[in-house]
Structure formats: structure tokens, C-alpha cells
Design a protein that fits this description.
Elements: E1 2-12, H1 18-29, E2 32-37, E3 43-50, H2 51-61, E4 69-78, E5 86-88
Parallel strand pairs: 2-5
Antiparallel strand pairs: 1-3, 1-4, 2-3
Helix pairs in contact: 1-2
């Protein structure tokens, strides 16, 4: 059954290719949704797919790309929404 996650990633997560890398991981796992930078320095992620795909992405978000330094990932389950692909906002 498809569902979604809404995540906020804190740490050194901007200017380290975090959004691009997140999109690549989402594409690899077959997820849809989006990722964006926030004014406060966090990265926000909305992703939709099956539970295993979402768990894979959540696990990856805990470390992110090589240059990132993730301090915290806050995630909540949200209702499934239909998106075409995974975009960077």
C-alpha cells in the first residue's frame, strides 16, 4: 500500500548537493514527490511510494551525500498523494 512521508533534515544540508542527491535516491527507489531548501537552513522532503521504498529513503536521509553533515531527520507519515516523478523545488 502506498503512503507518504514528510521530512525535515537539519545540519549542513544546503550547498552540498543534498537536493540533487535526494532526487537521485528517490528515482533509484521509485518514489515520487519533491525536495526543497528552507530559509532556516533545513531541507524539506515529501516522498510517496511503498513502505520499503520510503524506509530506504529515510535511512539514506540520515547521512545524505558525502559532503553533508546531517544532525537530525524529523519524519511523519502523511496520506498518499499522486505526483509525476520527483522534483526539486
Amino acid at each position: 500500500m502506498d503512503k507518504g512521508i514528510h521530512c525535515f533534515v537539519t545540519g549542513r544540508v544546503q550547498a552540498v548537493c543534498f537536493r540533487l542527491s535526494t532526487r537521485e535516491q528517490a528515482d533509484l527507489y521509485g518514489l515520487t514527490g519533491w525536495v526543497r531548501n528552507l530559509q532556516d537552513g533545513r531541507v524539506e522532503v515529501m516522498a510517496f511510494g511503498d513502505e520499503q521504498q520510503l524506509d530506504n529513503l529515510k535511512q539514506w536521509l540520515k547521512s545524505g551525500p558525502a559532503m553533508a553533515q546531517v544532525v537530525d531527520v524529523v519524519s511523519e507519515t502523511v496520506a498518499f498523494r499522486k505526483f509525476e516523478g520527483f522534483g526539486i523545488r
